[in-house]
Amino acid sequence: MAKFTFRKAEEKDIPEILYFIHQIAVYEKLENQVKASEASLHKWMFERKVAECLFLVEDGKDIGYALYFFNFSTFEGRGGLYLEDLYILPEYRHKGYGKKTFHKLASIAKENGCGRMEWVCIDWNTPSQKFYESLGAKAKKEWILYRLEEKDIERIAEEEN
User: Fold this and answer.
1) pTM of the full predicted structure?
2) Taking Cα atoms as reference points, which of 74, 91, 13 lies closest to residue 45?
3) Which of 116, 118, 88, 82 is nearest to 101 (CA)?
4) Which one from 68, 97, 132, 146 is the annotated catalytic residue?
5) Are 100 and 133 in contact (CB under 8 A)?
6) Alpha-carbon torsion (97, 16, 83, 110), positive or negative
7) pLDDT grade, residue 1 (50/70/90)?
8) How many CB atoms lie within 10 A of CB 40?
9) d(CA 42, CA 49)
């Protein structure tokens, strides 16, 4: 039987983090949107420490990753864990590793006193949606995600001046 573990990403793992970012982008059919680089990951993850990464490991091989960060809920009055990415290589899926990853992330959230865990799922990914619902997660359909892209941020920032 395969041995499954987690390991926390270190600076030396930046190329591998970037590899998994590209893999999830391909899966989500969004590969043309990846702007991340080794330099940007180093700056934001290891200098500014705004995100953390766990590798999913089977028999010593990294087979996926979970990238997350802590946010804050004014309603809860405390932090939350936001899962940015969870990706498992296709040949390692359906082995229970996704569920084990959520158990691990829930433990991290609990250890940090978080009031909630949140993430988004692309609308066509019904297998993932069913998996999340099997864990007890609820889709928050009353909330609409809004985003300002970099060009919009720059434009709005300039309007202030």
Assistant:
1) 0.94
2) 13
3) 88
4) 132
5) no
6) positive
7) confident
8) 12
9) 9
